[in-house]
Design brief:
Number of strands: 4
Largest sheet: 4 strands, antiparallel
Structural class: alpha+beta
Shape: elongated
Helix content: 40-55%
Number of domains: 2
Distance between the termini: 78 Å
Protein name: Primosome, DnaD subunit
Number of helices: 13
CATH architecture of the largest domain: Orthogonal Bundle
InterPro entries: DnaB/C_C, DnaD-like_sf
Strand order of the largest sheet: 1-3-2-4
Family: Belongs to the DnaB/DnaD family.
Order of helices and strands: HHEHHHEEHEHHHHHHH
């Protein structure tokens, strides 16, 4: 390890006191700590209100990538970054804002301050992912997934955005409900349900298992000798089953 020869400036990156008293003692994931500090550094260089940094900026940041490669050289850097951001959002250190744009959605990350929370709440038509969600808000597909399946990641957000443009909203809601009912809480399972409905038809697939068993098919006609007719002395009365 190369020796560090000291800082070249007296201009230090400001951090709130709660970071040291409340946040830092509870962080056990090194990648989460590195990403959180990197976000503080990036927003400290910005001016104006609602200082924020996008997923695109973080994922293309060479200094951050080098820092995360030191955490794990086997996993893709994007996976480590995604996990770290998810932990920081879940902890409440960062806010996650999904901003729709033509043909895509952009993920923004902000330090969780009162001013930033108020700014995010004023963004019409957008979705904030914070530790506490409004109980009266009508959940979007992003909210339904987060509440029932698990934490959203930038990759999942893109996939959900594409799915919401491709499938009816009710399909997405019912597919999520089926995943919860089956206790298979992942996007891959939900996507297979949607693809099957698209291929086979939702109604026919849904009702396939609900079709009544036609007993007469096996007690009359050419199958009767195999299964026994009602009233035959050598077979039970299937009509009583």
């Amino acid at each position: 390890m190369a020796a560090f020869h000291g800082f070249s400036t007296e201009n230090l990156v400001p951090l709130p006191a709660e970071f040291f008293s409340d946040v830092l003692p509870s962080i056990s994931n090194l990648a989460e700590l590195k990403v959180t500090l990197h976000v503080f550094w990036l927003v400290s260089q910005q001016r104006g209100r609602a200082k924020r940094v996008s997923w695109d900026a973080l994922s293309s940041d060479s200094a951050l990538a080098q820092s995360l490669r030191a955490v794990s050289q086997l996993r893709p850097t994007s996976d480590v970054l995604e996990e770290a951001l998810g932990l920081a959002v879940e902890r409440g250190t960062l806010l996650h804002l999904i901003s729709p744009e033509p043909g895509r959605v952009v993920s923004w990350y902000l330090v969780n301050t009162q001013a930033n929370r108020h700014w995010v709440e004023r963004q019409a038509g957008q979705r904030v992912l914070a530790p506490e969600a409004s109980p009266t808000a009508q959940p979007t597909i992003f909210g339904l997934y987060e509440q029932n399946i698990g934490l959203l990641t930038p990759l999942l957000i893109e996939q959900l955005h594409e799915a919401s443009a491709k499938y009816p909203a009710v399909w997405l809601e019912e597919a999520i409900a089926k995943a919860v009912e089956a206790n298979v809480r992942n996007w891959r399972y939900i996507r297979r349900i949607l693809e099957r409905w698209e291929t086979d038809g939702k109604e026919s697939t849904s009702h396939r298992s609900e079709q009544l068993f036609d007993l007469s098919k096996y007690t009359t006609g050419k199958y009767a000798a195999l299964f026994g007719r009602s009233g035959d002395s050598d077979g039970g009365d299937l009509s009583d089953l």
